[in-house]
Automatic annotation (TrEMBL):
Alphabetically ordered keywords of this record: DNA-binding
Transmembrane spans: none
Annotated InterPro entries: Homeodomain-like_sf, HTH-type_Tx_Regulator, HTH_TetR, TetR_C_Firmicutes
Native organism: Metaplanococcus flavidus
HTH tetR-type domain ranges (all copies): 13-73
DNA-binding region: 36-55
Pfam families on file: TetR_C_8, TetR_N
Protein name per UniProt: TetR/AcrR family transcriptional regulator
Amino acid sequence: MEQNKEKLSPQAWRTKQHFKQAFTELINEKGYSHVSVTDIVQRAQYNRATFYLHYLDKPHLTDELKQEMFEQIKRKSMERYESGKIIETKSLDTNSFELISFIYDNRSFFNLYLMEDTIPGLYQDLPQAVFELLDEQFTLMAQGGRDLNSKKFKLYMAHGTAGLILDWARNGYCESPREITAQLISILQVFAVGFQVE
């Protein structure tokens, strides 16, 4: 999946991205269960042979799309930080997180979280990605010396962050990515004075 991207030619990588984009658009339009391989190849303007060159079937494409976006959520959250560095939360600004801009730029995919007939298991992916990121990459330093690094607390943070993001999507992204980032920072500053990147 993500690791296979390195082995693909630029043309093959673009072809797969076209299939994923077409698939995402079609799910938004008519729901996951109503999208066929024929629909996908017609929307992407390829033939079935090209589809089957890259994917076994619709579930294979689904799994790769989910995994790619899951990894991107984690990667975009880390792009601005060096390993071992301690960041004070009071120094954060609206340019401190790439994740919210990434979500905004990929609204077509993240709107799938709002649908009833969507990719199976998708609802768990956003909080799970945020939780894994917090658990594996960040050590939080608390206001007042409390322990913020238990799995329970990081799970709570992950679901709260995902909830805020999905509420933003549900309301049509009416606030800018910078405004949402500012809200997340203000929430973080309530209980954390800083964090260290692992």
